[in-house]
Amino acid sequence: MAQIILQQILTMALYMLCGYLLYKTGKITDEGSRSIANLLPWVVIPSTLINSFLVEYSAEKMKNLLIAFALAGATLLISVIISRLIFRNSGVECFGVSFSNAGFIGIPLVQSAVGDEGVFYLSGILIIMNLLQWTYGIPLLRKDRKEGEKVDSGQSLKSVLLSPIVLCAAAGVIIFITGMGPRLPKVLTTFIGGLTQLNAPLGMIVLGIYLGKIRLMDIITTKRLYFVSAVRLLLIPIVTVLAFAFLPVPYPIKMTMVIAGAAPVGVNVAVYAQLYDADYEYACLTVTQSTILSIAVMPVIIWMAEQLMR
Fold first, then answer.
1. Would you list the domain boundaries of the chain?
2. Residue 165 in contact with residue 46, Cβ under 8 Å?
3. Whole-structure pTM over 0.70, yes or no?
4. 2-309 maps to which CATH number?
5. At what angle do helices 106-113 and 2-24 cross, to 10 degrees?
6. Is 265 strand, coil or helix?
7. Which tens digit of pLDDT belongs to each residue from 92-108?
């Protein structure tokens, strides 16, 4: 499995390079990148979640889904506690380390390593993460903003609950429980499946564009970033692996959570930092450096998890 993860990460790195070059050569503008980025949370990721639920219902699968939700909560709890203990004085760092890129990067890696069954289990962590980012993460970033600066009121809890990711995950659960998935029209499932294939290329092209917007030397010379990346890519995944290794839980569920927990800093730290007048440029640096380093680190973490969990 570690070899599959390595191949997938290298493929995603090439997608990211593509986005970087397109932005640097002016083929994609800032406005164009925002339009491409909007496709992910509004169309591609929701379609991927629904696609994972288009399976035949069984009591065993339902039991595993509930276990996956429980482990998703535990995965996020580990991240939140560690980041809070270490980065209590920096909202951007605490937010970024708490919430991995389980959507853009986690989904394609889980698909390649575990299959659609893994995305089925991953839905829990995406739902819980979206809710935690609003209730727990945003106050962290508000603490970092400069005094006297006007802040956009941002998303309401209602808008988070009605977001495409949460709604489509809920719709997927309903489709699964009612057994509708296998009976949907072929043209509809083909449409959803086609959109699902866009997740890895578009997600990494967007990250490549983020990379093109900042100075590469800042990624190399900002020493603090290495510590942030080490906690996100090494400490949290290792604790997660050790916590789950000997649980009497099906291997695909545990591996799905490990991959999600081992992913680099999620892009939402940059999105929310810009919205709430926190340090947007530094937030972008945490995303890009941890993403680049994850190319080398994630296969090692997955290999270690595989040895312990098998």
1. 2-309
2. yes
3. yes
4. 1.20.1530
5. 150
6. strand
7. 999 999 999 988 788 88
